[in-house]
Amino acid sequence: MKRLLGSAMLLSVGMFSVPVYANPADSCDGEQTIFDAYAIKGGKHVGVCHVAGNVRYVYGKDSGKPDILLNVPADKVKFTISGNGDQSVTIPNGDYSYTVGESLRGGSSIQVWKQQKLISEIELSGDTLENHIEKFSNNANANANANANANANANANDTITLNVSSKYKDVPAGRYYFWKYQLISNVDNLTINKITVNSGHCLINEKKRVFMTKAREHNMLDRLHNGGRNQISEDNEMPRTDWDLNTGGVYYFTVSSDSDYGKCRPREALIETNKGISTFRWKN
Fold it and tell me: Signal sequence: where (predicted)?
């Protein structure tokens, strides 16, 4: 009986001495998956996951050290859900950023951006793709949206009407395709401070023009016709720009595209003005 009891005790010790391993620090194994897929060419793996308040981005072969390993605070990561169902998550890394997601028009991919220029795109296979971007987007954006809305004018969109259309024109180098935006002010004394298209990935071609003040125009004509005998002070008048609009005033700007208008297709435009932030979204 004692021998049996001793054997049972040894067995119990053996059962409870199994080591517990932590999840690896260089992969998304065992973590909360945000996005997971494999590249069509080369078969490399991309994993995006949530790890203890951070978002981890892993890219490379399944075995061995990953080519890219990033751990970024979750509040620095951008989740995007468009009206037509496109979903993406963007992980910043200095001047670079990695946008991973699914597009109803173009499948799934990794886009590598340097500042605001797309430098590489890797197509992903949909065979084993796992996508939970929408779930994490809802969680991540809830507090951020609440804070932003508290500081923004709730009726900011009422101050502006924004229309967009696809255009092209023939130039010596060939045909140039672009998106043309028409911004109309619905209020007086509107000043545009900043325009952001598609989260900053698409730059507007026009720059803010500064117009001559009435005082400066007077002095220029006076020098031309009267030798400058009737000059007036220019210190008290601020120059007007084409970003200063009254009711009915219009500002046009364009964004370059390609022949099928897939490049920089309008998804979101943020217009920051002295009246608040106006956000416009389109369903593609």
Answer: 1-22
